[in-house]
C-alpha cells in the first residue's frame, strides 16, 4: 500500500476537520510495514498532535458559565471548573494573571472567561488557560455580594455591640484614600473649617486590582503604629472614596477589606461613594458617612460652637458663684446676729480670773504654814533618844527570833513537825479503812438484794420456768403451739418434745388454802408492870 493511500492524521483527530495537510504530518509517521494498512504512533506523538490541533482551532475563546470547584494552591495559580447545566470544563489561571484579576473567583459565581484551550498530556484532558475573568453582568456581582454579606453577618462582623464609639475630639486622624482625588481636599477643607486637627494620609488605589489589598494594608498599618512614636498613631480612621459604579467600588466589597476593618482597634468611619452607594465596609465600620465631607463632620465638632458653649458655661458658672456667695453672705449675717458679743462672752471668765488671782496669795501662805507645822511635828521622831528606843526594840525582836535559828531550836521544830505528820498519816489511814469497809458492806447488801430478787431463788421454792422454741411461755395456748418445750428447774433444764407429752390445756383452779399450823403455845410473857 502506497503512502498516498494512508489515512490523514488530521482527518482522524478532527473528525472531519481537514485543516492540516498530510504532508505536514508525514515526518511523524514511520515507514509502513509490509502487510499492515494503519500507521503506528507513539503516545507523545499523538498527544502533541492533539495539543497543536486544539490550540490552533481554539486559540482565543470566551466562555460564559458558573464557577464550580476553586482551589488556591501556594504556588499562586488558581484552578477552577466552569460549568453549565450539562458540561464542565477545567480551567487554570496562572499566577501572573491571577494577581491582575480585579474580582476574586468564588464558587457559584457566574463569569465570562477569556483564554485559549490547550491539553494536559499528563492526564489526557483538555483545559482552558484563562487570560481574563469578569463577572457576567451586574446581577452576578450583586448575587456574589449578597452571598458574601450573609457569610460575614453570620460570623457576627455586623453586630452592633462590636462597634466602638468615636472619640469626641481626636488629636490625630488617619485618612485612607487616593492622594490625588478631590476626596482628600474636601476632607481637609471641612476639617479646617470645623476644627483643625493633625491628619495623616495613607495613599491607596481606590479602584482596580490593587484597591482591596492596599486598603487592608493601610488599615492594618495604622493599627500597628506605636502611640507616642515618631509617626503618631491615629485616634480615628476615615476610609473615603468618591462615587462610581459597582465595578469601581468593588474593591471595598472584598472580604479582605471587611475583615481588616473588623480587626481594627482604632474607631473607623467609612465614606465610600455617594449617599445611595452601599458597600460591605459600611456594615463593618463603626460609623458610616454618606459622603467624605460628612465623614469629616462626624470626625470633629465645630470649634465655634464649642467656644460658644464654653463661654456660655463660663457665664453660668460666674452667675452661680455670685449667687452662692450672696446666699452664704446673708446666712453668715443671720448667724452673726444670733451669736452674743465677744465682750459678753469674756466677762464671766474675767471675773473668775480676778477672784482666783486674789485668793492665790492667801492659799499659798496657808499651804506653807500647814507644811511647816507638819514638818515640826515629824522632826520630833528623829531625836537621838527616840532613835535609840527604836533600835533597842528592834534588837529585842531580833534576839527572840535568833533563838529559833539555833541547832537546838531547829531540832525541836523538826520533831514537832514529825509528830504532826505522823498524826496526819494515822488519821488518813483510819479514814481510808473506814471508807473501804463502808463500800464492802454496801456491796454485800446489794449482792443479797440481787439474790433475793433473782428468779432462781423462786425456783428453789418449787417453781419452774417454761420456754417454747426459745421464748418464754406464759399460757397453755402458747405451750400447745410450740414444737419444743424447755422447762428450767432449780437444779437444771429439761427439754420435752411436743409429741412425747400431752399438750392439752388443763383448766386451772386455785388449790384450797391449807390452814397454817398453829405455833406451839409459848409461855405467856409476864407483865412488866
From TrEMBL:
Domain (OB-fold nucleic acid binding): residue spans on this chain: 41-133
Matches recorded under HAMAP family: Exonuc_7_L
Pfam families on file: Exonuc_VII_L (PF02601), tRNA_anti_2 (PF13742)
Family label: Belongs to the XseA family.
Any Gene Ontology biological process: DNA catabolic process
Subunit structure: Heterooligomer composed of large and small subunits.
Location(s) in or outside the cell: Cytoplasm
Ranges of residues in domain Exonuclease VII large subunit C-terminal: 157-496
Sequence segments annotated as region (Disordered): 498-529
E.C. numbers: 3.1.11.6
Domain of life: Bacteria
Role according to the record: Bidirectionally degrades single-stranded DNA into large acid-insoluble oligonucleotides, which are then degraded further into small acid-soluble oligonucleotides.
Name of the protein: Exodeoxyribonuclease 7 large subunit
Reaction(s) catalysed by this chain's protein: Exonucleolytic cleavage in either 5'- to 3'- or 3'- to 5'-direction to yield nucleoside 5'-phosphates
Gene Ontology MF terms in the entry: exodeoxyribonuclease VII activity; nucleic acid binding
GO cellular component, one term: exodeoxyribonuclease VII complex
Keywords recorded for this protein, A-Z: Cytoplasm, Exonuclease, Hydrolase, Nuclease
Native species: Shimia isoporae
Matching PANTHER family: EXODEOXYRIBONUCLEASE 7 LARGE SUBUNIT (PTHR30008:SF0)
Cross-referenced InterPro entries: Exonuc_VII_L, Exonuc_VII_lsu_C, OB-fold_nuc-bd_dom
Presence of keyword Transferase: no
Amino acid at each position: 500500500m502506497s503512502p498516498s493511500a494512508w489515512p490523514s492524521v488530521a482527518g482522524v483527530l478532527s473528525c472531519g476537520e481537514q485543516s492540516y495537510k498530510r504532508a505536514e504530518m508525514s515526518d511523524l509517521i514511520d515507514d509502513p510495514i509490509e502487510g499492515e494498512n494503519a500507521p503506528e504512533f507513539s503516545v507523545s506523538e499523538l498527544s502533541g498532535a492533539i495539543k497543536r490541533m486544539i490550540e490552533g482551532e481554539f486559540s482565543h475563546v470566551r466562555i460564559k458559565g458558573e464557577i464550580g470547584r476553586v482551589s488556591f494552591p501556594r504556588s499562586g495559580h488558581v484552578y477552577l471548573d466552569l460549568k453549565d447545566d450539562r458540561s464542565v470544563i477545567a480551567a487554570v489561571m496562572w499566577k501572573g494573571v491571577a494577581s491582575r484579576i480585579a474580582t476574586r473567583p468564588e464558587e457559584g459565581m457566574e463569569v465570562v472567561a477569556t483564554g485559549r484551550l490547550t491539553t494536559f498530556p499528563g492526564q489526557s484532558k483538555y483545559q482552558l488557560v484563562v487570560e481574563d475573568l469578569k463577572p457576567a453582568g451586574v446581577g452576578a456581582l450583586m448575587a456574589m455580594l449578597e452571598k458574601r454579606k450573609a457569610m460575614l453577618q453570620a460570623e457576627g462582623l455586623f453586630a452592633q455591640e462590636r462597634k466602638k464609639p468615636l472619640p469626641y475630639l481626636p488629636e490625630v486622624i488617619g485618612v485612607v484614600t487616593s492622594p490625588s482625588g478631590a476626596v482628600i481636599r474636601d476632607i481637609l477643607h471641612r476639617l479646617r473649617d470645623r476644627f483643625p486637627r493633625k491628619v495623616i494620609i495613607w495613599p491607596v488605589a481606590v479602584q482596580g486590582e490593587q484597591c482591596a489589598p492596599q486598603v487592608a494594608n493601610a488599615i492594618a498599618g495604622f493599627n500597628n503604629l506605636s502611640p507616642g512614636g515618631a509617626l503618631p498613631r491615629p485616634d480615628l480612621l476615615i476610609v473615603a472614596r468618591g462615587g462610581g459604579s459597582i465595578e469601581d467600588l468593588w474593591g471595598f466589597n472584598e472580604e479582605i477589606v471587611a475583615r481588616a476593618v473588623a480587626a481594627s482597634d482604632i474607631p473607623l468611619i467609612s465614606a465610600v461613594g455617594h449617599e445611595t452607594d452601599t458597600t460591605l465596609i459600611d456594615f463593618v465600620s463603626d460609623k458610616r458617612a454618606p459622603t467624605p465631607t460628612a465623614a469629616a463632620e462626624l470626625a470633629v465638632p465645630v470649634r465655634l460652637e464649642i467656644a460658644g458653649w464654653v463661654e456660655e458655661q463660663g457665664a453660668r458658672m460666674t452667675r452661680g458663684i455670685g449667687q452662692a456667695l450672696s446666699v452664704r453672705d446673708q446666712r453668715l449675717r443671720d448667724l452673726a446676729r444670733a451669736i452674743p458679743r465677744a465682750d459678753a462672752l469674756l466677762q464671766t471668765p474675767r471675773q473668775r480670773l480676778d477672784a482666783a488671782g486674789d485668793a492665790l496669795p492667801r492659799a499659798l501662805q496657808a499651804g506653807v504654814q500647814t507644811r511647816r507645822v507638819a514638818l515640826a511635828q515629824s522632826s520630833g521622831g528623829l531625836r537621838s533618844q527616840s532613835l535609840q528606843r527604836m533600835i533597842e526594840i528592834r534588837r529585842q525582836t531580833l534576839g527572840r527570833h535568833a533563838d529559833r535559828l539555833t541547832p537546838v531550836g531547829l531540832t525541836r521544830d523538826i520533831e514537832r513537825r514529825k509528830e504532826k505528820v505522823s498524826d496526819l498519816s494515822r488519821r488518813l489511814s483510819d479514814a481510808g479503812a473506814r471508807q473501804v469497809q463502808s463500800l464492802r458492806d454496801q456491796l454485800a447488801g446489794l449482792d443479797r438484794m440481787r439474790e433475793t430478787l433473782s428468779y432462781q431463788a423462786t425456783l428453789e421454792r418449787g417453781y419452774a420456768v417454761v420456754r417454747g422454741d426459745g421464748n418464754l411461755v406464759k399460757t397453755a395456748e402458747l405451750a400447745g403451739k410450740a414444737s419444743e418445750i424447755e422447762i428450767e428447774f432449780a437444779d437444771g433444764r429439761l427439754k420435752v418434745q411436743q409429741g412425747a407429752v400431752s399438750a392439752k390445756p388443763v383448766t386451772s383452779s386455785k388449790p384450797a388454802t391449807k390452814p397454817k399450823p398453829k405455833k406451839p403455845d409459848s409461855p405467856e410473857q409476864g407483865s412488866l408492870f
